[in-house]
Amino acid sequence: LTVMGDAGMGLNVSPPDNTAQQDSLFSMTDVFLISLITGVFTYWFFFRKKKEEVPELPKMPSVAAPVRDSSFIEKMKKTGRNIVVFYGSQTGTAEEFANRLAKDAHRYGLRGMAADPEEYDLSDLSRLSEIDKSLAVFCMATYGEGDPTDNAQDFYDWLQETDADLSGLRFAVFGLGNKTYEHFNAMGKYVDKRLEELGAQRIFELGLGDDDGNLEEDFITWREQFWPAVCEHFGVEATGEESSIRQYELVVHTDVNMNKVYTGEMGRLKSYENQKPPFDAKNPFLAQVTENRKLNEGGERHLMHLELDISNSKIRYESGDHVAVYPANDSSLVNQIGEILGTDLDTVMSLNNLDEESNKKHPFPCPTSYRTALTYYLDITNPPRTNVLYELAQYATDAGEQERLRKMASSAAEGKALYLSWVVEARRNILAILQDMPSLRPPIDHLCELLPRLQARYYSIASSSKVHPNAIHICAVMVEYETKTGRLNKGVATNWLKNKVPNKNGSNSLVPMYVRKSQFRLPFKLSTPVIMIGPGTGIAPFIGFIQERAWLKQQGECPGTSLGTGAAAERCSDYLYREELARFHQEGVLTQLNVAFSRDQAEKVYVQHLMKKNKESIWKMVNEGNAHIYVCGDARNMARDVQNTFYEIVAELGDMSQPQAVDYVKKLMTKGRYSLDVWS
């Protein structure tokens, strides 16, 4: 402070003439600064005006283009279409049905297009009446427990929220479901009901396809009544017999840069060589198999545990989620198809859509080779649908074989019965049909156009990310069976996974995968007890649940009571994760562990028998402890039997009538306390 005071006093004793000079200097500086500021402001003002005008020079086609692309109305007007068939599809079947209906339209002097609701603005449905003789058809699959498919989620949300006036809309709905599930065809029923509520006019009754029965026959039966209703409504007639119309044209590439050829990628070219997150159905992650071991001891079945390394992928998952894997077809089946059709499978080709306005330019990634298409992109192991048989019939040179194919593709009762016995029940795939019909030799490009896409397979994740943040575990059973024709059919994915041997340097151990989120979740409250019922590979998600609760216990948390009632197997030798479950039981993470071996004694014992044996403890946990119930496994028999057993326990110990017990369990489901992760 003394130094600063001395300096201040020194400034104050300056001579008078020095002060006058400073006053004059500041005045000149002020003038200079004002002039400078004025000049800069003037320059900025005019420069700013020019900059503002720049964005206005280009008109706005780049902004308008996406709007046009998302309007199916504008597209229909431009291409002369009057029928649009939307599909909500998870496995490709609903999309296939939509394409067949769109293709049918030409027989009645109409023009149709199949459309993915994810790609369009569905609020435009209110404008469809602008097009003469217009109709919207919805082929809607139900996924999981009454949920919409991924590509129909936005459409479902819009239907729930909108109050649009759809009084000018004419529509029809065909639902794809499975009666073994609790919410059979929930999505199809909802769309049909909601469109009517919004004022739309239903021109034909709701169709309900059942995949547990014969989905193909259900569709054909609905379709053969649907078109006459359309004809009557619009006053049109069929123009002739159904004819074969190619949707794609073949282009063979004789001189092509192999770096531009797809070799199995699902979306972006070379995405397997240059992996970039985020990873999803169109951009799967190539995970290394680090462990592949057999879970059961001996026995006829091969039950396996695989571990996929997801390090550096940024993939996150929770216990209860599903992992989807993209398998490959058996190379021997692919080679046999090539040999029968006399084709060089390494020919590089493209199948280009003849409809230049279509969003779907190719049936699968192109250009590619026939070998790649048959290996990675096309389903060659499932029995082909009737429309495929109809299209192929023209290539059978033997009159008897041609007639047989056309009959199976017809809507006649005799034809349906023949298709059911000769194709479906005999499990004849396309190779078996070609082998059993020597005169049937279609062009391979048309066959590739007709075959459906090979779909990803979903597995319940058998690990917890708390314990294994960089790995996803899979529990699966290898599918293998003999058909009525004596052929040995093998499951595509499980046989492919079985051969994925851990190998640090080879591609043989790589699995294209992504994670699909699930609603199958542990209770938010750690003190909430859980009851888990999972026969066979249904134990998979519960391994993740138990790992998570064990981890929480190690962290000093206090997990609630867990009752594992359903670690069931056909035989003791098929007891999965025996050591792990015994350890968790010993550590107190599992308070009860009940195991049933259905075939190790004269009288079969299933999980429902274990439930009845432990009915008092089950009822106490549910009624007094607010326990959450989880069921995973077979939907056709096990899940239904387990649910019926719960009805019995609730009725007996809760002193309720059967209808009251059913209502009690249904309310548990509504509250999220009774969850299912089942498959048929």
- The CATH class label of the largest domain is Alpha Beta
Number of strand segments: 23
Here the CATH topology of the largest domain equals Rossmann fold
Mean pLDDT: 86
N-C termini distance: 88 Å
Mind telling me the CATH superfamily name of the largest domain? Flavodoxin domain
Rg over CA atoms, rounded to whole Å, is 33 Å
Gross CATH architecture of the largest domain: 3-Layer(aba) Sandwich
Tally of distinct domains: 4
Helical segment count? 22
Percent strand equals 15-25%
The unreliable regions are 1-29, 42-68, 567-573
**Structural class from helices and strands?**
alpha/beta
Report the major sheet.
7 strands, mixed
User: What is the helix fraction of residues, given as a range?
Assistant: 25-40%
Global morphology? globular
Q: Keywords for this structure?
A:
680 residues, Rossmann fold, Elongation Factor Tu (Ef-tu), domain 3, NADPH-cytochrome p450 Reductase, Chain A, domain 3, 4 domains, seven-stranded mixed sheet, six-stranded antiparallel sheet, 23 strands
Q: Briefly, what is this?
A:
The chain is of the alpha/beta class and 680 residues long. The chain folds into four domains: 72-234, Rossmann fold; 277-327 and 456-518, Translation factors (Elongation Factor Tu (Ef-tu), domain 3); 328-454, NADPH-cytochrome p450 Reductase, Chain A, domain 3 (Up-down Bundle); 530-678, Rossmann fold, CATH 3.40.50. It is built from 22 helices and 23 strands.
Question: How does this structure look, described?
Answer:
The model is unreliable at 1-29, 42-68 and 567-573 (pLDDT under 50). The protein is an alpha/beta fold and 680 residues long. Helix 11 (386-393) runs antiparallel to helix 12 (399-408), helix 12 crosses helix 13 and helix 19 (607-613) packs parallel to helix 21 (638-653). Helix 7 links the parallel strand 5 and strand 6. The chain has 22 helices and 23 strands. The N and C termini lie far apart (88 Å). It folds into four domains: 72-234, Flavodoxin domain (Rossmann fold), CATH 3.40.50; 277-327 and 456-518, Elongation Factor Tu (Ef-tu), domain 3 (Beta Barrel); 328-454, NADPH-cytochrome p450 Reductase, Chain A, domain 3, CATH 1.20.990; 530-678, Nucleotide-binding domain of ferredoxin-NADP reductase (FNR) module (Rossmann fold). The strands form five sheets. Strands 1, 2, 3, 4, 5, 6 and 7 form a seven-stranded mixed β-sheet that branches. The longest helix is centred in the first third of the chain and has 38 residues, at 16-53. Its EC number is 1.6.2.4.
